[in-house]
Amino acid sequence: MPVTRSAGLLVFRRTKNDGIEVLIGHMGGPFWARREEAAWTVPKGEYGEGEAPEEAARREFREELGLDAPEGDWTALGEVRQAGGKTVTVWAVEGDLDPAAVVPGTFAMEWPPRSGVRAEFPELDRVGWFTPEAAAPLLVAGQRVFLERLLTRVRGRA
Q1: Are the C-beta atoms of 23 and 64 separated by less than 8 Å?
Q2: In angstroms, rounded to a whole number, what is the distance separating the alpha carbons of residues 67 and 87?
Q3: With bands split at pLDDT 50, 70 and 90, how would you rate the model's confidence at 1?
Q4: CA–CA separation, 147 vs 135, rounded Å?
Q5: In whole angstroms, what is the distance from residue 96 CA to residue 32 CA?
Q6: Rounded to a whole number, what is the distance in angstroms from the first to the last CA of the chain?
Q7: C-alpha to C-alpha distance for 154 and 126, rounded to whole angstroms
Q8: How buried is 28 (Cβ within 10 angstroms: 0-12 exposed, 13-18 middle, 19+ buried)?
Q9: What is the pLDDT of residues 26-71, one digit of tens each?
Q10: In this structure, what is the dihedral angle of CA atoms 129, 64, 126, 31, given to the nearest 10 degrees?
Q11: Is the pTM of this model over 0.90?
């Protein structure tokens, strides 16, 4: 059985007093609508064998946020195999963007279940800047390690 692979980009910005904030998005659709903790994600998406993971991360950022990825040096944060079996590879890049400028991509699914009706939902229904400490409980558990890796690189600590 082939491994599902996903690539994403974790944007961060520096704040006063040598702090940082990260940009994450709340997953759209009815399954996530009433959840806050463990319902946010790094902008990312799946890719196949013919696509480089870096290009997939750039494409998915554009598809999910409707904005180009910030220019700058990408720092590899490695990969993680999530509980569902998907392998996620993430890079970090320093940048800034206004969450109000986001125009999320959409997906369609049958809703309500077994109704025969297809409804469209945003991939991410909102995005925001958070300190890594505030972002950690919001992110799905399998992606929290990327915050730790980012902190190690930016702050020089685990």
Answers
A1: no
A2: 24
A3: low
A4: 8
A5: 26
A6: 35
A7: 26
A8: buried
A9: 999 999 999 999 999 999 999 999 999 999 999 999 999 999 999 9
A10: -130
A11: yes
The number of beta carbons lying within 10 Å of the beta carbon of residue 96 is 12
Question: What phi and psi, each to the nearest 5 degrees, are found at residue 73?
Answer: -80, 130
**Alpha-carbon gap, residue 87 to 98, rounded angstroms:** 29
Identity (one letter) of the amino acid at 79? E
Structure token digits, residue 61:
């950022």
Cis ω for the linkage preceding 113 (within 30 of 0): no
What gap in Å lies between CA 93 and CA 22, rounded to an integer?
Answer: 10
53-71 core/surface letters (b: 16 or more CB in 10 A; e: else): bbebbbebbeebbebebbe
- Residue 53 CA, distance from chain mean position: 14
* Residue 136, amino acid: A
- Cβ proximity of 44 and 65 under 8 Å: no
